[in-house]
């Protein structure tokens, strides 16, 4: 393996020399050091791909979701949000809200360490965006009104999320998952853990939706955004 790795570094040394010259022409950057870094990065991606293979059985090979009913799409989520939720599952902040979360908790805890969590989240973030199929048939106009009033300030008018407010994108999750989470927040099944800093505001906001039909309408509107 050492010989193979050296060969890869050697073969890429000329390319690395050109890259180092373009990136920092006034500094001396070893072509072999840069090529070695590229090799390590490729190895990290391969490791993350192997780790994700376990996730793919439910979430799909490209994070499209719904391979197992109820598994959310991941392809439009940012790495910081994926990482936070994995840590929440690993630290028992999440896992008690429903049967799906209870299944996810031991999977997250099986991840080797925090560095692996970070690498896995970054690997998932690189997936091409996938648009889930429409599952709900609520009143889209009514859902839009509720969404603008209660959701848009954090998640954005187009539901793509806002990192400054720690609000994830919603359009790629899938209607079933969004409906289940809004229902969990409304029922105080999620967001009450003392360490769930960002779940608490969601629980409060979701509880202002006056009925299950309002939840369905909001989900229908979010799905409609994803189809645009």
TrEMBL record:
The keyword Repressor does not apply. InterPro entries: Cyt_c-like_dom (IPR009056), Cyt_c-like_dom_sf (IPR036909), Cytochrome_c_Oxidase_Subunit (IPR050597). Signal peptide: none annotated. Keywords: Electron transport, Heme, Iron, Metal-binding, Transport. Residues 43-128, 138-226 form the Cytochrome c domain. One of its GO terms (molecular function) is electron transfer activity. This is Cytochrome c553.
